[in-house]
Amino acid sequence: MKSKTASFLKKNKKQLLEAWMHNQLADSTLRDDLITNEELGKQSEELLDSLLKALGSGEFNADSDVFQPVVDIISELSITRARQGFSPRETSLFVMSLKRAFYSIMDKEFANDPALLYQEAVIINNLLDTLSIITMETFIKGREEVILRQTDEINEISTPVIRVWDGILALPIIGTLDSARTQIVMENLLQMIVETGSRIAILDISGVPTVDSLVAQHLIKTVSATRLMGAECIISGIRAEIAQTIVHLGIDLSNINTKASLASALKLAFNMLGVEVRRGEKKSII
Amino acid sequence: MMTLTKEKLTILREPDVIFFRNKAKEYAVKIGMSLVGQTKLITAASELVRNMLRYANGGEAILEIVVRNNIKGVRLTFADKGPGIKDVKQAMQDGFSTGKSLGLGLPGAKRLSNEFDLKSEVGKGTTVTIIRWKNGL
Ligand SMILES: Nc1ncnc2c1ncn2[C@@H]1O[C@H](COP(=O)(O)OP(=O)(O)OP(=O)(O)O)[C@@H](O)[C@H]1O
Ligand SMILES: [Mg+2]
User: Which domain, by its residues, includes B99?
Assistant: First the structure.
């Protein structure tokens, strides 16, 4: 399609950039704590340059190859903003406010030819809408990446293996024990058993909200793996309501050592290792 | 029986299980169900949502607060458009599983609920409905 827009926009690049910057800075939600005006100006000019270059080819379809550099810049920018904590509004405003800048310039240029103005406006509108959609899509993808990374981090930090006594390990499990978590728990536990030569591992499930058949199966698997390493497992922290539920569900934990509290599990562990803990004579401090 | 509150959730992915369970807990707390009752309801819900994800690639879960004879309860409905269950009697048996699992989900959910209903048609899908009453055993 032939369009006059490209050539005249190129002529007016300076005004365009000014109008666009003006629109962006006018928005009260702009995060000047996350981005300096100078940086914003640089990003804006870079995008505008590549956009004008693509428009110069006479192509107006954002999906075509000539727009690839433009799409790349927008994607990069949206992902970066998602990671930095910009809101969707701030991010989409970047492209949206360019639309308004285009309109204000075109309005003047085609003032005496409404039909042409309309025709050109539709072209620009479609193009920038597509770019807006790309902005939002990449922004959301960026946010999802952030969430996934956080989930991994939580999984890592929330499965510690604690050496409570010579030969005794404790694993407080907090949250849902899904397949991915079980894998991490199991790996950490088995590695620690080898490293410390421990003979007993206490899995404390006080922090697990629901024990359904899947969680139970994961617990049973962990116990079996521990036994294969020549160590024994005690499951502690089984709350009264969880105990009743496990029984109704029909899960058989009868060949696994279970205790209500971590303290009683520790007592059992001492017993199994032949360790005796006694209250000694109180030594005078002075 | 009358419905007081109703909410529908789409279950498509693993994280939806936790979200739905928390919703079910919210409903149980709202009608003043005991802690044991809540835990039983949530565990049954967990089994049924997981089945839906595992065998039917997801489906719809409906939460309701219902009243009958002046007693409140939570009704949960799990409807999927999956392959359906060929032999329901067999599927309801302890230890039967086509998924190399414990085979406790369906029979366990039934024991954990006060009322349990399963309708399934091969090639069409499966709908499971359970109720736990506020004062249910
Ligand atoms: N929504 C469903 N659609 C199709 N088949 C199902 C559905 N729910 C259960 N089934 C079938 O019924 C069988 C028994 O289900 P149940 O939940 O009791 O056991 P499981 O899922 O195999 O194991 P578990 O729940 O103990 O991990 C399943 O193996 C599966 O073949
Ligand atoms: Mg199941």
Answer: 2-133
